[in-house]
Design goal:
The chain is mainly alpha-helical. The chain has a domain at 2-49. The protein has three helices and two strands. Strands 1-2 form a two-stranded antiparallel ribbon. Strand 1 and strand 2 form a beta hairpin. The protein is rod-shaped. The N and C termini lie far apart (74 Å).
Amino acid sequence: MEAAGSRIGLSRAQSYRAAELGQMPAERHGKFLLVPRKRWDAEVKRLLRGPQSKPRRRRKSAATEPTATAGR
């Protein structure tokens, strides 16, 4: 738990709390609470990558649109 949490800057207590809240994948094996490496690595990559969104299309600016006063 400590090693998994330290990868994203969590203390020992914060790591256990995150697992308790379901924010960190953890499995109990007897008295041990273990973090599955593949699932955690994928989660850390997703967290470090940040939110993914499509690039927004730019709107036409007001300067390129014809105005009513242009012909005066």
